[in-house]
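Re: the 177-residue chain
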Amino acid sequence: MLDRLRALLPPPADPVEPGRPDGWAELEATLGTPLPEDFKAFTEVYGSGKVDDFLYLFNPFAAGEDGNLLAEKDRVLAAYAQTRARFPDRLPLPPFPEPGGVLPLGRTDNGDELYWATGGDPGAWPVLLLESRAARQELHRTPVTGFLAALAAGELATRVLPDEVVHRPSHQFTPFG
C-alpha cells in the first residue's frame, strides 16, 4: 500500500519530524500497544504534514504537543468517552485501551477525527472516520496507507469528507513547518 500511496501522493524530499526506526519500541511501550507497520513506514517517509492542506495524521515523533500522537491520545479519548457516554448509540466502539477500542489517528480541518479500530493484529486495524460532532461515522476496512491511497486516487467512498477534497484532480502532501 505504501508504494501505491507514494506514487499517488509523493512524499516530501525532506520530511519534517520523520519517524525513526529505533524510536518505535519506546513509543509502543508508552502507548501500551504495537502500532501498524504501514503507519510506521508512512511516518518514516512522510513525517509531519497535511494531505491537501486538510487532513493530518498524528505523529508520535512531533516535537510539540499539537499533532503528537502521545499528547493527543489522552485529550481525544477523553472527549470521545464523554461524547460516547451521552450518545452510546452513535459511538458503539469503546475508547482505547478497552478491547476493540478506538485509538486516535488524526483529524481534519473540519474537526472530523480518524481513529484506528483496535483489536487483533495491528496490521488489520481498520480506519474509523468520525464526522465532527459525532453525527456520522464510517469504518474503512483498510490500513491507513490504503485509506490515504484511496483518497489520493479519488476512490474513497465517504460521506464524511467533503467532495472538493475527495474528488480533487490531484492531491498533495505538504510538510509542516
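Residues 116 and 127 are 5 Å apart (CA to CA).
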